[in-house]
């Protein structure tokens, strides 16, 4: 009540600033008031909250509150709670009449209290209801035009809009950003670039626009969104964290759904600007470190990179920026190799880029002279952006009848366990090579059983049990074997049941199958039987596993 009394009708600059500062909190307060009022009848409300009518009445006459987001709607809900449907006495009837008067005031888009305005609109041939929206539209268009001219005039000070006016406009727009009629002005303010040494728009304006955009209360073109995130980095960080909240949830998000979230966020498209890409990529890096390489984060990075590359190809037939600006600490030749789309390379030649990628990575990881490209983690972080190459390597190793190439073995061992030293990685390669040898024998076997496959995967070349990441890599190879071996389809369900006895392993196998199907779709792989089996296994795991 004290705050509303101070705000009065937002008539001074100070009260306007204070009102704008507290609008989101006041709207939340109104919402909480409504949650309480809706559970009571009118008489109980007046008895428990004698000053509620006075508070709501003061709110009704504050134009800033009425214009902000959903405040007007919530205020109407609160007032409706005061109306007694069956008034029993004159006091209750009086309260109803008074409440309806407030509702009438709120629901009237514009009120005219002077005869002059009425005569003026009649002279123009407009009814008040038509005239005022048209006036607002023309005012907005005029301001937008002035901002654009200001941008084009540059240093022509005689025709420029002064920075104070632009700052004032951004402040006025804070409570109005969700109004459709104001959107052109919001967009023009975001795109406006003056020659002032400091930002002229209010930080609260950026916050309000970003919040409304994230909650889908306004729609903005990509050019305006890019300007918003470049001019106000907290908004970009908040947008990325908002995306993380959607992607990393208690329930599994399949890759197609992750792709929809990413494209809907506009972050991959906005990341065509290197500054935005670098910040989003850095936040992914921290998420990866904080979660110790969680599969959900890895999947999000890979899908984000795929969407980003697609947006880059559509936007820049001739690139404005070199890839060095996006990956400044990576080897340019390695980046170009990873950026190759496997779909554009004949399948029988996939081993060639895989070999080159492996050799370059190995040289950087194991040869200290390449310190300028970062350590093992930096190399691995770059590689996981294009994790589809590791999946192709796993398939190639299972399907090939030749001796497993050391380059592909090293690539898989590194992708699954980048922290290992050379000796540990060599042991993993030996284990994987032995399993592949067993799988090749079984691949040609006329009679294939689940127990044979389980035994082949369980045998270890060392006396010590395999590390968890090595076990995970071998499960990946077993799954590929089931999808591609002639007899694998028959025993697939039994083997999957044996491999995924816990919710955690079920979750892992679900992710592998989803990842495989997503990659096949993007590669347009023609493998109807394998695709059908993968989809069926995925559906069955989702039904069976409480973790999915």
TrEMBL record:
It holds the Pfam family Fanconi_C. It is found in: Nucleus. One of its GO terms (biological process) is interstrand cross-link repair. Coiled coil: none annotated. GO terms for cellular component: Fanconi anaemia nuclear complex. InterPro entries: FANCC. It comes from the Eukaryota. Its main location: nucleus. DNA repair protein that may operate in a postreplication repair or a cell cycle checkpoint function. May be implicated in interstrand DNA cross-link repair and in the maintenance of normal chromosome stability. Upon IFNG induction, may facilitate STAT1 activation by recruiting STAT1 to IFNGR1. Belongs to the multisubunit FA complex composed of FANCA, FANCB, FANCC, FANCE, FANCF, FANCG, FANCL/PHF9 and FANCM. This complex may also include HSP70. This is Fanconi anemia group C protein homolog.
């Amino acid at each position: 009540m004290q705050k509303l009394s101070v705000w009065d009708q937002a008539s001074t600059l100070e009260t306007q600033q204070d009102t704008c500062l507290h609008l989101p909190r006041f709207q939340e307060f109104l919402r909480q008031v409504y949650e309480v009022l809706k559970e009571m009848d009118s008489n109980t409300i007046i008895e428990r909250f004698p000053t509620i009518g006075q508070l709501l009445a003061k709110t009704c006459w504050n134009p800033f509150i009425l214009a902000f987001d959903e405040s007007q709607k919530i205020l109407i809900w609160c007032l409706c709670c005061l109306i007694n449907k069956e008034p029993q006495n004159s006091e209750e009837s009086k309260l109803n009449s008074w409440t309806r008067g407030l509702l009438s005031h709120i629901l009237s888009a514009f009120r005219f209290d002077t005869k002059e305005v009425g005569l003026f609109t009649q002279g123009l041939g407009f009814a008040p209801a038509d005239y005022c929206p048209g006036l607002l539209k023309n005012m907005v268009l005029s301001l937008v035009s002035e901002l654009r001219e200001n941008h084009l005039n540059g240093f022509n000070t005689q025709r420029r809009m002064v920075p104070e006016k632009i700052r004032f406009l951004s402040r006025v727009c804070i409570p109005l950003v969700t109004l459709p009629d104001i959107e052109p002005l919001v967009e023009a303010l975001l795109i406006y670039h003056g020659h002032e040494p400091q930002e002229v728009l209010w930080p609260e304006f950026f916050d309000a626009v970003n919040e409304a955009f994230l909650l889908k209360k306004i729609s903005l073109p990509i050019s305006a969104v890019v300007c918003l995130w470049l001019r106000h980095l907290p908004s970009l960080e908040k947008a990325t964290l908002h995306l993380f909240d959607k992607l990393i949830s208690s329930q599994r998000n399949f890759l197609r759904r992750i792709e929809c979230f990413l494209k809907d966020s506009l972050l991959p498209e906005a990341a065509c600007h290197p500054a935005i890409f670098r910040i989003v990529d850095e936040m992914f890096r921290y998420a990866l470190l904080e979660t110790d390489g969680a599969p959900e984060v890895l999947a999000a990075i890979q899908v984000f990179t795929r969407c980003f590359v697609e947006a880059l190809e559509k936007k820049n037939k001739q690139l404005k920026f070199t890839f060095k600006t996006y990956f400044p600490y990576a080897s340019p030749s390695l980046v170009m190799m990873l950026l190759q789309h496997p779909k554009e390379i004949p399948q029988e030649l996939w081993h060639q880029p895989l070999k080159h990628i492996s050799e370059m990575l190995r040289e950087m990881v194991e040869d200290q002279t390449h310190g300028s490209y970062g350590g093992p983690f930096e190399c691995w972080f770059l590689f996981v952006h294009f994790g589809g190459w590791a999946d192709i390597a796993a398939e190639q190793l299972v399907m090939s009848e030749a001796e497993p190439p050391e380059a592909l073995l090293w690539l898989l061992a590194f992708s699954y366990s980048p922290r290992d030293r050379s000796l540990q990685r060599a042991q993993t390669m030996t284990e994987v090579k032995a399993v592949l040898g067993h799988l090749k024998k079984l691949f040609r076997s006329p009679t294939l059983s689940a127990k044979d496959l389980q035994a082949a995967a369980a045998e270890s070349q060392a006396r010590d049990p395999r590390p968890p990441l090595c076990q995970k890599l071998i499960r990946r190879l077993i799954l590929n074997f089931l999808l591609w071996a002639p007899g694998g389809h028959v025993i697939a369900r039994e083997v999957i049941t044996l491999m995924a006895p816990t919710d955690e392993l079920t979750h892992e196998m679900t992710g592998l199958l989803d990842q495989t199907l997503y990659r096949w779709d993007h590669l347009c792989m023609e493998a109807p039987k394998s695709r059908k089996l993968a989809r069926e296994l995925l559906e069955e795991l989702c039904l069976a596993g409480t973790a999915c």
